[in-house]
Design goal:
The complex is a heterodimer of chains A (132) and B (82). With 132 residues, chain A is α+β, with helices and mostly antiparallel strands. Chain A contains four helices and five strands; from the N terminus they run αβαββββαα. Chain A folds into two domains: 6-51, no CATH class; 79-130, no CATH class. Helix content of chain A is 30%, strand content 14%. In chain A, a hairpin with a 4-residue loop joins strand 2 and strand 3 (50-51). The longest helix of chain A has 16 residues, at 78-93. Chain B starts with 14 loop residues before the first strand and ends in a 9-residue tail after the last strand. The mean pLDDT of chain B is 85. Chain B is α+β, with helices and mostly antiparallel strands and 82 residues long. Chain B is globular. Classes of the chains: A alpha+beta (132), B alpha+beta (82). The interface between A and B is large, with 59 and 50 residues.
Chain lengths: 132, 82
């Protein structure tokens, strides 16, 4: 979503993005003229009249599980976005019985919070696990 | 995915859903209030927006995606560099 019109979205897709991604952008490119939606999400930069690089993860119940907002010159890390979604999906599927420690990704251990784990995290989880 | 929309000369627009008519001053006050309501663990504000998707102009409403995970991305503008 940006403040550009759908017509400009089409031009950008057809003339540039489709040359980077075969078949063009696979998802909907949303238009937010005037930044009305961006204002509500807190990402509309009034002075510049554009929207910051805001990224919101919304779960199947419509609840915001996480967000990240960057100023325009620095791009995002898509791998981290996917990792977060996988983590939130894992936690959701466990119905709240599991939590994913720092640096978790599929295949790494999760933690099962409860009285027995208090003060014992150091026994099952090492700081080296926070890194790839 | 949303319904296809007819495109005339005017730019298609969307906006927050459920908004009532207010004076500009009241609007500003409410927007500021709503800004503070973006909190993890809380509902994402619903909205509609025109969109371009695979050769068609469509209208998208966030609440149509209930039941799915959604990544909502904002960016400064088309043809920006990063």
């Amino acid at each position: 979503m940006s403040v550009d019109s759908v017509f400009v979205h089409k031009m950008w897709n057809d003339h540039e993005l489709s040359k980077m991604v075969k078949g063009g952008v696979p998802f909907a490119m949303l238009s937010d003229g005037g930044g009305k939606v961006g204002s509500i999400y807190g990402v509309y930069l009034e002075d510049a009249g554009v929207e910051a690089r805001g990224r919101f993860l919304i779960d199947p119940d419509g609840v915001i599980q996480g967000y990240e907002v960057l100023t325009p010159p620095v791009g995002r890390n898509i791998s981290e976005t996917f990792r977060q979604i996988q983590a939130f999906q894992h936690v959701r599927n466990s119905q709240g019985t599991e939590a994913t420690p720092s640096g978790w990704k599929p295949g790494k251990i999760t933690l099962k919070p409860g009285p027995d784990l208090v003060g014992k995290v150091w026994e099952v989880w090492k700081t080296s696990m926070a890194f790839d | 995915m949303g319904e296809e929309i007819k495109v005339g000369c005017a730019r298609p627009t969307g906006g927050p859903v459920g908004e009532t008519v207010q004076t500009q001053e009241e609007k500003t006050a409410i927007v500021k209030e709503v800004k503070a309501m973006i909190t993890v663990g809380k509902k994402a504000p619903d909205f509609t927006a025109p969109a371009y998707h695979k050769g068609k102009f469509i209208s998208v409403q966030l609440s149509e995606y209930l039941g799915k995970w959604v990544i909502l991305c904002f960016y400064p503008g088309d043809f920006t560099f990063v």
